[in-house]
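Escalated from tier 1: N-oxalylglycine holo job.
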Amino acid sequence: MTLQVIDLTPRVGSEIRTDVETLMSGSEAATIRNILEQRGVVFFRGLDIDDAQQVAIAETLGNTVASEGEGGIYKISLDKAVNQRADYLKGSLFWHFDGSLQPYPNLAALLRAIKLSETGGQTEFCNTYAAYDDLPDDEKKSLERLRVVHSAARSQFYVNPEMSYAELEMWQRAPSKSCPLVWTHQSGRKSLLLGATADYVEGMSVEESRALLARLRDWATQPRFVYRHEWQVGDLLVWDNTGTMHRALPYPLDSGRLMHRTILAGEEPLL
Ligand code: OGA
Ligand code: MN
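Tier 2 regenerated the structure:
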C-alpha cells in the first residue's frame, strides 16, 4: 500500500492512510516529509503501533533526539506524578513552537495518543508559512528586519502570572534569545516566528511591541490557518515544528491524558 492523502482544511493538516510496513520501511519517508512541509501537520489513524515502532518510524523521517525521555519516548502529561516537568509543560496550552530558545529548533515532533481526557485536550496547529504568505506586501516589508527577544521566563508568565522573585530568578537564568520575526528558511520559504516565549520586539516600546506580537498572533491563529486535531487513542501525529505553532486545549490535570512524544532534531539554525 502506498499513501492516500486526505487534506483536512485548505491550508493545514492532512490525514495519511497507509500501513505500518510502509511506514517502517521508510520507502515513502521523503514523500511524507514533503507533505509535512507543505501541510504543517499529518496524522495516521489506526496503525496500532508500540513505542519501538514509533521511534523506528521517526528514524525514517529524520534524526531522533534521544536526550529526552527514555528510548526516544518522552511522556507528555500535566500530572506531576508522570512528568516532573508538568508545570513547565502547562505552557503547552498557549500558542508556541518547541525549542525557540535552541540554536536549532526541532524539525518535527511525533505525538502518539496513549490515553485521552474525557473533556478538552484537542491539539490545535496553525500554519505560519501560510500566515506569512497571506500578509499584505507592505506589512511583509515592514516586518522584514524586525527581531524579537524570546525567553523562558516570558512563557512562564502564562502559566504563573504572579511568580515570586525566586521563581522569576530561576526562569531568568535561562538565557534569552534574539530571533527574526520572519524566518527565511533554507528552502527560501518564509514563516512568521511567534509564540509564548516571544517577549518584545527589539527597538520598539513595550506597548508597541506587545501590540504587534498580539496582532500577529491573532492573524496567524485565525481559523483559516488552523487545524484542530480531535484525538483518538493510537493516533500518530507529526507536526513540522519550523512552520507551525501549536497548543493543547485545556483539560483536567488529573484526567490521565498521556501522549508519547518523539522529536526530530532541527536541521536549520535559527539565527
Ligand atoms: C508538545 C506539546 C501538545 C499536546 O508535546 O510539545 O505542546 O497536545 N503538546 O499535548
Ligand atoms: Mn509543544
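Residues 76, 92, 98, 109, 111, 123, 246, 248, 259, 261 surround N-oxalylglycine (ligand 1) (CB under 6 Å).
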